[in-house]
Amino acid sequence: MSETILYLLFRLLAPSLSPAATAPEFVPTQEQAREIRVKNARALRYPNIQRLFAEAALPYPPRRVFLRLFKDLDILELWVQPSGTQPYVHLKDYPVCARSGELGPKHRRGDLQVPEGFYRVTAFHPTSMFHLSLRISYPNASDRLRAFGADPGGDILIHGECCTIGCVPITNPLIEELYLIALDSYARYRHWPEVHLFPDRLDDEGMARLRERYENRKDLFEFWQELQPGYLLFESYRVPPKVSVERDGRYRITAPAGVSAAPAGH
User: Which of 90, 125, 131, 159 is catalytic?
Assistant: First the structure.
């Protein structure tokens, strides 16, 4: 075989042999690409998403996405994990533009309550009644056990528009951005985003506020004490804790395996 032919073969094969080939530059996913709302959202929001991640010196898409809602503060936090071994980074807060129900968990269909507890996204809805939406895994095992045989309801979403009967609305422009970030991460790495829903920040100050406002609701405060380790462990490790459910419906929450506590102020 002549040197010329060998050289040409090398030039053809070299890209596939280079280290960069194992981590190609991200190309927007074709998943849901034909959906008109997703297509329009990408045209409108993708440049800003690129800037958002570039300014934070983070790769796109992130390996994992984590969402944390504080109901009484009307804040939905977006956290992202750059790689499987790194702590999550707080990227952005989305204001929640409407709410229904009161603080406390959801137990029944039609009670207008936004759930509280530990969930994950289970579906991306590109033709939602509320523009675009992320479906949350309510009811989880704990919710079903605590419902005591009643219908706990379902179809809890993070969505667009600005109305709600128990969901988390953040307006159309913001759900377009969040939807794409979550979709692209899932399409690349196949990790469903985790979602923690809290009444407030469950640090000492937040718990004091809740205790003062709900001093006659021992049941509620005990439930929030049950959730508190999930909040505190994430604050310490910047990785979501391990969550399981006991036979009585109570959450069992333990530190994430294989990670060290994040430095103070991280």
Answer: 159
